[in-house]
Specification:
Helices cover 5% and strands 48% of the residues. The longest helix is centred in the C-terminal third of the chain and has 6 residues. It starts with a strand and ends with a strand.
């Protein structure tokens, strides 16, 4: 079955860290831009970060710049989102998505319905 699989969510205190993983199952991520989105209760899904295989570009939302780092390991067919200095406002379900051969900026500009694949989501909760 062709799908994206997220993992790594959990409970963490403010200031803590988590690393999310987005793995390709049944297909290679080598030619795909991968992005992370999050959705908190009652809020719209927002773009967090993306990474392109086309040109190596990356994108970060202003709210996570300097705290989150996106990277990819093609050998493991996985994209990671390292999240440091977590805040309660980072609490959300985090989703990854894939789009074939676009830059990181082009990826984030696409309508949500246009992505080739979506993962099922992983919960991140930052609590005091």
């Amino acid at each position: 079955q062709v799908q994206l699989v997220e993992s790594g969510g959990g409970l963490v205190q403010p200031g803590g860290s988590l690393r999310l993983s987005c793995s390709g199952s049944g297909f290679s991520l080598d030619y795909y831009a991968i992005g992370w989105f999050r959705q908190a209760p009652g809020k719209e899904r927002e773009g967090v970060s993306s990474i392109s295989s086309l040109d190596g570009s990356t994108y970060y939302a202003d709210s996570v710049k300097g705290r989150f780092t996106i990277s990819r390991d093609n050998g493991k067919n996985t994209v990671y989102l390292q999240m440091n200095s977590l805040k309660p406002d980072d609490t959300a379900v985090y989703y990854c998505a894939a789009e074939f051969l676009v830059s990181a900026a082009q990826f984030m500009a696409l309508p949500r319905s246009e992505y080739d694949y979506w993962g099922q989501g992983t919960q991140v909760t930052v609590f005091s």
